[in-house]
Every structure is written in C-alpha cells, then in structure tokens.
C-alpha cells in the first residue's frame, strides 16, 4: 500500500531537516538542511566527536585569537557535517550563516564566502551548497548580492508575506517559510489547534506564498519548513520542496490512510508588483505581530545554539 511519504515524493522534492548523517542515509532525501540547533544536537552525539576535535584542531592551527578560533571551529564543524551529507544526497546541502550576523549585510556575505572556501577545501563543489541566511532586510540584501555572484541562497526564518515578496524581488534561489512556529504563535495567542490542516495558519501562510509566486511567475523555490505534525506536511503536497525532520519522515512512511491534498499549480500569470522598498518592507513586516516576534525569537534561538556550540569547543 502506498504511504503518505511515497505520495509526497510524487509531487514535492523531499528534504531532510537534520544534521544526523545516519538518518539521512536511511531516508535518502533529495536535499538536506541544517541549522545551528541541529548542529548543536549533532555535536552532543558520540558519532560526531571526531568532527568536533578535527574542527577545533584546524581552527587552532590557523588562528591565534581565541574568538576567531571558536568562530572558525564552528564554521568548519558545520562544513564537515555538510560534506558527509553532500556525499549522500544527490541535491543540495544548506549550511547556515551565524545568526548573530543577521543585521550586517557585508558580514553575512563574508561568512558565506568563508563557508564556501571551507567546502572547497573539503572537495565539495559550490554547486551543491545553499547558503542559509535569516530573512531580515539585511539578510535579503546579502543574498541578493551573493546570487548575483552565482552563490545560491536559502532564506530562512521566513514568516511574513513581506519577507516572501522581498526575497522574490531579490531573486533568491529558495525560501524556507515556516509552518509550525506560526501555529505555535497563534495557539499561544488563543487559537484552538485546528483539526483540519487547511485551517492551520502556518499551512495557510505557505499556500498563500506559493500561489503568489506562481501567479507572478517568480522562479524562487518555495520549501515548506518547521513542521509540527504530518497533517501540515500532507496539506502542502505539491509545494516545490518540503524539509522534514527524521521523526516525521518515519511517521509519513508508516501512514497509509491520510487524506490527500494537492496544491494547484495552474494559475494565470499576472504582472509582477513593483519591488518593495526598504521602508515598505519594514512597515509591512512590522504590521505582522506574529512574524515580527517569531523572526526575532528564531534569531535569538539560533544565536544561543551557536554560543553553546562554541562552549563545547572551549571544553575540549
């Protein structure tokens, strides 16, 4: 009997949202994504202690300043994990820029190039890498410049229509609109958890972005992310890509009686709206309380994970 995962694979590209290499080998996704929280989890697993030590030894051999050592060690650890994943998946591996740089365009550009140089050192082609950047105005501008230089980007922590529009204006390769964190915010603010995933505000947000992109013929790839349950994922069947945790991939693989959904992909093409100015972007994003709060919260959480990973290197 066909599983929900098998059906999803017929209509969307499946991406593993994990830093666990063995989980990726098991599920054989097309692409994989990591983030600082996932890398921190990987650093706590016995299987990856050798990567930690190798990254730390390399950083100390190259840098004398302790802060620069920690920064380089974290970058190299992310790349070492990414290299192993790149050897398994046929498509892309997304590696994230330090969230503490999220409001500094030039620093994000420099960090992206550092990550790519480390990947090159490990023999991984730039064609396999997506540089993952928070969807602040500064992050979107960094991605716009990187894309112009042929470096593909994945814009993450995306919650608002303003963010989605600005990313399309910037011609970024891919966006990762979050689903579960949007639901979390609405539940925390009084919404009863919906029984129908089509009433899930996170699902509705991604479906709206997807339709907007298709109606206006934007080429940016839409990759639904941050899922809380299988219903949210299944309700986005047909989205360009879906990045899913190993636990939910397991559940989908065992689910055979799920309700079927499929996003429409046959929209009449309309003229693109004028690009958003910085002032327009900031105002529209500011008007969305959920998006404003979740973007800030996400940046803080990823920054904290980065600091905790640095602490692990200090303890070596």
TrEMBL record:
CC terms in the record's Gene Ontology section: cytosol
Family annotation (CDD domains): Transaldolase_TalAB
Enzyme class, broadest EC rank: transferase
GO molecular function, one term: transaldolase activity
Family: Belongs to the transaldolase family. Type 1 subfamily.
Secretion signal span: none
Keyword set includes Nucleotide-binding: no
Keywords associated with the record: Cytoplasm, Pentose shunt, Schiff base, Transferase
Enzyme Commission number(s): 2.2.1.2
Cytoplasm keyword on record: yes
Localization in the cell: Cytoplasm
Protein role: Transaldolase is important for the balance of metabolites in the pentose-phosphate pathway.
GO biological process, one term: pentose-phosphate shunt
Chief site of localization: cytoplasm
Species for this entry: Pseudoalteromonas holothuriae
Pathway field: Carbohydrate degradation; pentose phosphate pathway; D-glyceraldehyde 3-phosphate and beta-D-fructose 6-phosphate from D-ribose 5-phosphate and D-xylulose 5-phosphate (non-oxidative stage): step 2/3
Family matches, as PANTHER family: TRANSALDOLASE
Name of the protein in its database record: Transaldolase
Catalysed reactions listed for this entry: D-sedoheptulose 7-phosphate + D-glyceraldehyde 3-phosphate = D-erythrose 4-phosphate + beta-D-fructose 6-phosphate
């Amino acid at each position: 009997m066909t599983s929900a995962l098998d059906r999803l694979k017929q209509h969307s590209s499946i991406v593993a949202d994990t830093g666990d290499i063995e989980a990726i080998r098991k599920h054989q996704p097309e692409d994989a994504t990591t983030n600082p929280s996932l890398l921190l989890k990987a650093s706590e697993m016995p299987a990856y202690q050798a990567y930690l030590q190798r990254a730390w030894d390399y950083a100390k051999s190259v840098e004398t300043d302790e802060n620069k050592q920690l920064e380089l060690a974290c970058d190299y650890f992310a790349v070492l994990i990414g290299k192993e994943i790149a050897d398994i998946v046929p498509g892309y591996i997304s590696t994230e820029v330090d969230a503490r740089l999220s409001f500094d365009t030039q620093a994000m550009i420099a960090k992206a190039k550092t990550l790519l140089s480390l990947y090159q050192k490990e023999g991984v082609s730039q064609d396999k890498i997506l540089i993952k950047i928070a969807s602040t105005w500064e992050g979107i501008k960094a991605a716009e410049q990187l894309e112009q230089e042929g470096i593909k980007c994945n814009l993450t922590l995306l919650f608002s229509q303003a963010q989605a529009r600005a990313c399309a204006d910037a011609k970024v390769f891919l966006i990762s609109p979050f689903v579960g964190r949007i639901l979390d915010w609405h539940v925390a603010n009084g919404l009863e958890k919906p029984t129908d995933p089509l009433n899930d505000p996170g699902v509705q947000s991604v479906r709206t972005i997807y339709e907007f992109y298709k109606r206006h013929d934007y080429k940016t790839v839409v990759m639904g992310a941050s899922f809380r349950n299988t219903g949210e994922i299944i309700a986005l069947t047909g989205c360009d890509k879906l990045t899913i945790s190993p636990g939910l991939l397991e559940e989908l693989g065992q689910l055979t009686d799920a309700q079927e959904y499929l996003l429409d992909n046959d929209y009449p093409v309309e003229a693109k709206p004028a690009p958003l100015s910085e002032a327009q972007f900031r105002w529209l994003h500011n008007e969305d309380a959920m998006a404003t709060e979740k973007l800030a919260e996400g940046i803080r959480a990823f920054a904290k994970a980065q600091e905790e990973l640095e602490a692990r290197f200090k303890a070596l």
